[in-house]
Write a structure and sequence with these properties.
This protein is α/β, with parallel strands linked by helices. Helix content is about 55%, strand content about 15%.
Length: about 170
Amino acid sequence: MSVVLIGPPGAGKSTVGALLAERLGVPFTDTDAAVESEAGRPISDIFVQDGEAAFRVLERQVVVRALGEDPGVLSLGGGAVMQPEVAEALRDARHRVVFLDVTIADAASRVGFDTSRPLLLVNPRAAWTRLMTLRRPTYEALAALTVPTGSRAPEEVVDEILAGLGEHR
C-alpha cells in the first residue's frame, strides 16, 4: 500500500509527506521534485520555455511511473489529478489517497504565491481560487481521507492521517 497526498499549492503536501514517510518507515517521493530532476530544470522554466502542455506530459509520465512502483508516500503536484491517466491510476486499491485541504489564507502564508508557481503568476489569489474551484471535486472524489491542514503543525496533520488510515505509529 502507498499513501498519495493530493491538494492545492500550499496545502503542505511536501512537508507532511516527508514526515509521514518517516513515521511509516517508507520512502517519500515529491513528484514536482522528480519532474524537475528528470527535466534538469525548474518547473517554472518548463512552463516558460515549453508551455504547460509539455509540463503536463512530463508530469503524467513521472506520476504514473511512481504510482506503479508502489512508492511509500507520494506527494503529487496540485494539478496532476486533473489528468485522466493519473486519476485512473489513483483509483488502484493499492493507493490510499489523502486530500490535504487548505484555505487560501493559509496557503498564501505558506507559499507566498511566488514566481516558482507558474499558474499563480497573474493575480495569484484569484488564480488559486479558480484552480481550487475547478480541482476540488476531483480531489474529493479521489480521496479516501480529507485532512484540513490550515493553522496546524505538520505533526498534527500526520497524526490525523495515520489515525484515519488505521495506522498507530
